[in-house]
Task: structure prediction
Amino acid sequence: MDAAESFKDKTFVVSDPDARLRRDDDLMAFALAAGGQVRTIPQGSQVRITEIRVVEAGSQSIIVFGRAASADGIQALGWTSTRNLDGKFMNETIGIVRPEPGASRFGPNAAWSNGEFLGQLDLVSIVDSRLDIERLALKTIDAYMALVAAAAGEGVPITLNSGFRSYPEQKFLHDGFVRGLPGFNTAAKPGFSKHQNGIAFDIAVAGGDGNPTYEWLKRRATGFGFVRTVNKEPWHWELDEPKAQAAKARGTFKTPNVTV
Ligand SMILES: [Zn+2]
Result:
């Protein structure tokens, strides 16, 4: 599997009963047949996604479209929303984001920890729990996918709420928090968020204890190198093999600073 394009060589089942095709020249418009009716891919069809486009619709909503071909690869079907596919493309990686030559410490790939610039990271775009696009450090993708696959094998969903953040993204969140703007939560100062270092993952574990995903992570995550590192944040896990091994050896899933 290509870590940066996990959808390649996979077969997806069309799950939406009204999986509409989009126009080749305008992905926001539906493709029409000669008679004027919207063209669709029948529910249950097996398709391969051969190409991806990300479209920003409005201020927040990001929609991924895939160029679908029939599973045997012979018949090109056209563009459709990946939301029409079984699994809705969650956890699929859709491309690598490399640092621009000469990128600054405030650029989109710049990693930080404790107020210090660490260096530039290769990042991978990945579809999150809300079907928006997050980025993760390329070096963490294999471990994250292994975690996802192991949980899926036991019927437990693992999806991402938040991954890597650049300095400007963290500044935006921090500014909103400081001003008390609606929709903004507590956020660390830019340069100090654990989401700027390339090893932090917020995983959807609504409610914490008792949530099937959280209970699975408590039992299994350290075996994949993931460990809980922040008090009162059951969703926040970091890929840190030594800390995870140490936690496992102590019979826990948390670093010693985590007491609640
Ligand atoms: Zn977090």
